[in-house]
């Protein structure tokens, strides 16, 4: 199939304004969008810039806006996007070049919620055990690959770049509800502030955008309830 790819480009060395450029490529229906981008870069225009790495939906590096929705280019099949495709960098992030966005602030927000195990007990002689039921409570949040697709799809971020964003809340959830962790109160205090969970408007864009199928909005609501009740055990 022959596909017309309309790509929003930006090169700071050419000026301050982005511009659109169209390419035509011949692809198989089961080729991925990443394959089509590679074909353009390798055969038509080597200056086209985008992130890519594992190409298997694990690293999350090739998140971009495809036909108006945030997706991983390595997971989108050409048969599912049609013969005319519009590709843009994700919204809510400063654009470095073409489809590459600056994610420094995204990772700063991620680090701000203390996304690591906090436990003040003495080191145990063996690993800290938990039951399958305890693990299941926070299991969905462990699937996050920090691609930024959920955060870049959120209108609350578009309007307020200081908001912590859904990806950070998901990763905070992963530890707030971990039975081995003792830092829930610290994280809930962070997320209870002005730019914490309460900026979420329950739009569900984040859930739609997640390439790992994480119920992002549901996890955010669980964190809200944990803050209101003062105890994660009462929120699930």
TrEMBL record:
Which Gene Ontology MF annotations are present?
2 iron, 2 sulfur cluster binding; 3 iron, 4 sulfur cluster binding; 4 iron, 4 sulfur cluster binding; electron transfer activity; metal ion binding; succinate dehydrogenase (quinone) activity
Q: Does the keyword Signal apply?
A: no
Q: Which residues form the 2Fe-2S ferredoxin-type domain?
A: 1-91
Enzymatic reactions: a quinone + succinate = fumarate + a quinol
Biological pathway: Carbohydrate metabolism; tricarboxylic acid cycle
CC cofactor note = Binds 1 [2Fe-2S] cluster.
- Into which family does the record put it? Belongs to the succinate dehydrogenase/fumarate reductase iron-sulfur protein family.
Q: What is this protein called?
A: Succinate dehydrogenase iron-sulfur subunit
Q: What is its EC number?
A: 1.3.5.1
Q: Which SUPFAM superfamilies does the entry mention?
A: 2Fe-2S ferredoxin-like, alpha-helical ferredoxin
